[in-house]
Amino acid sequence: MHQTLLVTGGAGFIGSNFIRYWLEAHPEDHVINLDALTYAGNLASLKDVEANPHYRFVQADIGDYTKVRKALEGVDWVVNFAAESDNNRAIHDPGIFVKTNVLGTQTLLAAARDADVKRFHHISTCEVFGELELDETRLFREEDPYMPKTPYNASKAGANHVVMAYYYTFKLPVTISHCANNYGPYQFPEKVIPVFATKALRNESLPLFKSSQNKREWIHVTDHAKAIDAILHRGRVGEAYNIGTLAEKSVEDIADAVLTTLEKPSSLKTYIPDRPQHDKRYLLDPTKIQTELGWKPEIDFDKGIRDTILWYRDHPEWWEPLIKKSS
Hints:
By secondary structure, the chain is α/β, with parallel strands linked by helices. Helices cover 41% and strands 17% of the residues. A 7-stranded parallel β-sheet has the order 3-2-1-4-5-6-10, with helices on both faces. Helix 5 links the parallel strand 5 and strand 6. The N and C termini lie far apart (47 Å).
């Protein structure tokens, strides 16, 4: 059966890659991209799909009920990527994170309920569970309590609670996924991999926090898209799924991979003070999505990050305007 999807935040990094993936994997489906086009939204990331008759763009904020409700006409599934997502920005302006991630999600849920959508899938993060110690052996499981420690993490945990409230109270058919750190093409140059890649390409210093051994779990954005596909088609309503790879790398590892791939000297690494509450480590247990839905990551991290770094090398026309705009 053909579906019509409303993808919020579709001009962002993960959303744009998801849209591209979906139109290729499900060419008979229709995709509506709803994005407010804030600083991280970039329609240049979707130039190659603009002419697709099954794709349509709507500029709107998820907090604008009237526009969202109109865009939801005829929509079967909602995939909610829309979020403020940078921990550094959240420290300087927590309010906008709560406004977009919690209140915006609630408005979107209300509109989806009124439109009688068949599925509302909410994109969450491993960071809602708090942090792990570097030497801990446990993994975050879906049923673990939320213990967020930063404004961004707290806003995403709050959104999860609201999503589940709409499931229990209003019977809205929802699913949630918690994902590891994404990497791949078209990522806004405020995140660590594009920051390091674009700086190295310009022979500028790579700023590493002093706690450069802090670890993150990494997933290629295409593997993430395939996991969401599996959840939408085979996932159980009212359930959350961890999208994890167990591929852990430190910030130091990432910097070294960038410098090696681009043949730049290690002297470009510099160390800066940590940000407040720089979580040490996140690691998701992917057992549920693997056993229930048969999903597993397909892209090896070493190959995936090399291809990603080379993508930034080969596409300065995409990221250079963004660097100039933010400077």
